[in-house]
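FAQ: What does the model actually see?

It sees only this:
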Amino acid sequence: MTPRLLRTAVATALALGALGLTQPARASSDGVHTVRVPDGDPHDRSLAPRTTEPFSLIGVTWDDPDAALDGTAEVRTRSRESGAWSAWRPLEADGRRPETGPDRDRAGVRGSTQPLWTGPSDGVQVRVSGSRPPEGLRVELVDPEAGSDAVHTAPVDPDVVGPAAGPLSAERPAMTSRSAWGADESLVKDPPTYTGDTKAMFVHHTAGTNDYTCSESASIVRGVFLYHVQSNGWNDIGYHFLVDKCGTVFEGRAGGVDKPVLGAHTYGFNTATSSVSVLGDYSTAATNAAVRASVAKVAAWKLGLYGIDPTGTTVLTSGADNGKYKLGQKVTFHRISGHRDGYPTECPGQHLYDDLPEIRTLAANAGKPAEPAAQPPGILDGDEDEGENDGADEGVLGR
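And it is asked to produce this:
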């Protein structure tokens, strides 16, 4: 290299360094790139703006999975399409590993924020502040399209597995299977863990943006899966079901949608519960009828497998000191509850949380038997079915 070219290269490198536009992030595994947040001020950590490998979903993780982020984490990202930088956006800091099961004991499990869907991006800036941010802060950049084959997102009709017979059974909703949204099953190393039954359904939102098209929903689900497995270090996606703003239902954690699979969704109350997460931020946006109907259908079918009235309540025992309840504390929950009912978080957003009474009613109606067809004139009716079953729990408590 000539002295002039050398001087030019050095000047260019210094200029890029001054702008923070450094080399792309390091790839830690297929679809996920990581960037370490430099140590520095004990109360404020930051990552200067930089060019990265392509990504569409972002989060922040740290070494100790039991450490809480007592503060805030915010990100700015650069659009791959327009080159424009976004405004600063907060990350919800309520990601916790389960209180029990293999997801808790796996090597490499990390504490984390919730992920944020950004859309196609190639640049990032981060700032984290608090009383003392956790050690080992790392930015996780997820590209759900990396290495993925073509994904078919047509809903899959219910298969031969049907709901249990009984007055509270509801029709299984159509859902997009794991293979259809593109789950990389080679990343799921351990078999699913099962609990005794399913007593309640917790409703979540994924936070992030509502500005996505429903054709992108499979990519968002795939991104959440990669974040939970590759970044959090869990065995599988934490949620049992996911729903997009068009009402499409996606199969979440593997093990059988009709089985009581142990999830990773509500720290302290993962045992004997199921979960459904709506794609989007419902602190800022209202839900629509398609979302409410789909969440209700999922809950009605899942709870109906156990003969449970979705408008009732149940008592669950906390499996951890989670900041809201103590280990061993018995808590009365609605059969369809919000994440915030079991854990100190804003999830599922105020709008979706306010919709839960309507969702419970919709779920109850979904489980009602169809009206009998009218008999032709001149045909005598048989004996009427007596003894309606309202499906309420014994000792149901109001809240």
